[in-house]
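Structure request: formate--tetrahydrofolate ligase, Entomoneis paludosa.
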Amino acid sequence: MSDSNNDKTTQNALGYPLLQPQVPVPSDIEVSQSIVRDVGLLPLSDLAQQLGLADDEVLPWGIAKAKIPLMVRERRASQPSGNYVVVTGINPTPLGEGKSTTTIGLAQALGAIRGKTTVACIRQPSQGPTFGIKGGAAGGGYAQVVPMEEFNLHLTGDIHAVTAANNLLAAALEARMFHEASQSDEALLKRLCPNNEFSPVMKKRLSKLGIDITKKPNDLTDEERTQFARLDIDPDTITWQRVLDTCDRHLRAVQVGLGSKETVKNTSGNGRIPHSRHTGFDITVASEVMAVLALAKNLADLREKLGNMVVGYSQRNAQPITADDLGCGGALAVLMKDALMPTLMQTVERTPVLVHAGPFANIATGNSSVVADEIALKLVGADGFVVTEAGFGADIGMEKFFNIKCRASGLKPKCAVIVATVRALKMHGGGPPVSAGKPLAVEYTQEHVELVTKGAANLVKHIENARKFGVNVVVAVNQFKSDTAAELEAVRQAALAAGAHNAVVSNHWALGGAGAADLAKAVEQACAETKAENFRFLYDADKSIAEKIETICREIYGADGVDYADLAQQQMQQYEEAGFGKMPICIAKTQYSFSCDPAAKGVPTGFRVAVREIRACVGAGFLYPICGDIMTIPGLPTRPGFYDVDIDCETGDVIGLF
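Returned structure:
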């Protein structure tokens, strides 16, 4: 495997040249481009060899990435799985606290420094924050995925596939409502079945309605014809929205159907009126299609989940209307078939990474895919490690990882790594607000142990929450250059006093895997000293919807209770009656606080959670309460990140991308 000489002082544990970090650390894109230019990417065949992948198990997508088919998992079904580790964090500042960087740094330390077969499993970043305010998700400094510009821009097109599938279903919904408003039952049936034959997806609807699937369209009774051809969707119950992978606040509320050709007869008989309604857009990573991608077990499961997605309810009998009722479940699966395969990439230290799915944690499930983790766990073997990342703070990303993702996969993690920074703890201790694009206040650049100690209450609450799931907790104190020894030690002592298995200062951003070597040792020890059987869920999915929501809000957030808007109350009743009440809960709320108030730092008390609506993601398999004023599509700031992005027209290099 070595591409150097036999002098071990120049090689890492994998036999590759040791990383040579520069001081000061260049920008993320400069680090990435220097690795690609000066060191060179590891050929995909060599990267695959690390994991024992056969030639037919690697589908190259250019020279820097490859798709990994699901047969890799099936071929190794009898092999033992590796140690399962999730990386999460405290409630962050708007600048982020380096959770992705820690995920990659830990994987580099376990693999390139400690010599353990290791795979990092991370999400594909959304274009929204890439060009907006937060940046990408490749990690940073000398702990990142390379080439970072390919990682952060398009990758293998999976997010675009989600956008296409989501919006095909939205178009099918609008078209069906339009045609039903302007045609008789007989005309609808003739146009749906022009050759007097039902397509396979139509037979699924017949079966759902209890109609004999051997019948021909012309053999249907008048009642059956109406049942089949007329979905009669109640516009007030529609929860399906269009999506795009861009931050655009002006699409949160829109009106569709205003074109001169989209008109129907006025019910009064006088002229024609627009077939119009109010709707809105979500960001692509909040789409249920993305959640289905993240939770699907295989192609058949993907197809079933996509077909079962509910878009609204019938006015006739309040029955849920699904993508298969609209006839496009199969077409959605065709659009998503390549996206179901995780993408193989590498870190700056040539350790493997599987990139897959991209749901946000504040407005979606917040974790990479089940299939990526399952494939990785089989590839690393019993002594190896899979380091997967849960988005944003542990109150949302980690909670959803345990209660939704692990419930869907059946996988049992051993260790949770909680990333904390002195900067964020100072903010939670009463420091001035932190805003992207503005200089940090002096409290964040000079020693202030008192603020750190006070803010550590936020970290303590997250440690207590993680331990409720039966996993060992390791705190990774992600070091910044302005941190002092006294501040770092204050974080360590607070974490250990709260019951963390260990707490380690880590400097992987500046040093790569070597800077996370102690963290890797702590994670190895934490995994060795627990059993996967200790893992447990926070709640029983058979509880009522309200009980599950209240359990999360009280146990994880520390709320006094939950208040429901009238719409949310109606939706809970509707979902219980429709048989959706036994699904896990995926709460959408701010990532900046345990509460729904982003300004409430530390560990707020005496608050209640306000649920304004609840969406049913029936295909993905969870219910989706939306709390406070959280928005499902972000807006751009005054000075978005795209101001700095450009291209060198002579070399073709991307410049200014973080």
